[in-house]
Amino acid sequence: MKRFLHYLPAAATLCAMLAAMPLFTACDDDDDPAPLPEQPQVHADQLADFAENIYRTDAEGLLTERINGLPLPELEADTTVLYIGITTADTAKTIFKNWLPQDGNIVENGMTVIFTPTDTLGNACGTITFTPATDAEGRLLARVTFAGGAALKYAREIRFITAEAFPRNDESAYKVGDVVVDETRTNLAGHTEDIRYLCVRKAQSGQSGLLIGFSGKKETTALACLEYAANKADAREAAKIISANYDYFASAFSKRGDNRLKDEPGNYYYFDHYVYALFYFGAYAINFKDKSEKYYNYGSTALYHVYSKTFGMRVR
């Protein structure tokens, strides 16, 4: 998604507004305004972020790709009821919690997890609930339901069923650790490189596989606003996977000639998470050792980018 290009008019408007604001001088030199906080005080659209873990849409809101959960007409005619094949309810709970933001309003009571997403104003918008479940056939292990303003267009309910009951268990195109050489890309600065990805999650029953790669050159956030940067859901999922088994993945990247995770664990990598707010125009970067994120003002700091691709899921 060429989000940067879409936001240019808004950015220009913001700059014009700031330029038009009257300037005031303090009567006393001691009355200097308080410095801006290092991080912009803005709220994420947590429902939209959650949806990116389930499916992706284009600029018109049309479904383009499924990430977690497939409709199975053999089990349910409603295509907004999605299925994932897993082994236990505990595994399902872990998968669900990986979709939630670290700073989210999350209430956990035994096996039940209730997430209350908020909008960009910080207002609650319904609830998303994970609960263990059973059915007469013995295939259902858990479900995710949406209530109130948390309804999603392409996912009314997500059902976790036993892997044996999942009717499509195709072999993953790649296994964890596989290296995938993808296309040659040229960014807005004219820098061309071959993007080489590492598989960090294989495709399985109702779950897409995930490939991660890093840019070969450091660039500022001015150039981070590109269609190629990994989106928030992919970058955060990769950080959770890699941080949980960091030495393995650092070694796997090293074997393909990339020693950055091994030698520079403190590195942050730009991803598709930008801020356009009063006094703030910049991007976030993520660390794959501890999953932390940092904000950088537009054009201020040159860092590597993280790229992502998903595979193994069909839009139906």
Give a summary of the structure in a few sentences:
The chain is 20% helix and 31% strand. With 316 residues, it is of the alpha+beta class.
Task: Walk me through this protein's architecture.
The protein has helices at 3-20, 46-52, 89-98, 232-244, 246-255, 260-263, and strands at 55-57, 63-66, 70-71, 81-86, 105-109, 112-116, 127-132, 140-147, 157-162, 179-186, 192-201, 209-214, 269-277, 280-286, 293-297, 304-311. With 316 residues, the chain is α+β, with helices and mostly antiparallel strands. A hairpin with a 7-residue loop joins strand 11 (192-201) and strand 12 (209-214). Mean pLDDT is 84; it is low at 1-30.
| Distance, first to last CA | 22 Å
Q: Report helical residue fraction.
A: 10-25%
Q: H/E element string?
A: HHEEEEHEEEEEEEEHHHEEEE
Rg over CA atoms: 21 Å
- Biggest sheet strand order reads 3-4-9-8-7-6-5
The parts where pLDDT drops under 50 for at least 5 residues are 1-30
Average of per-residue pLDDT values: 84
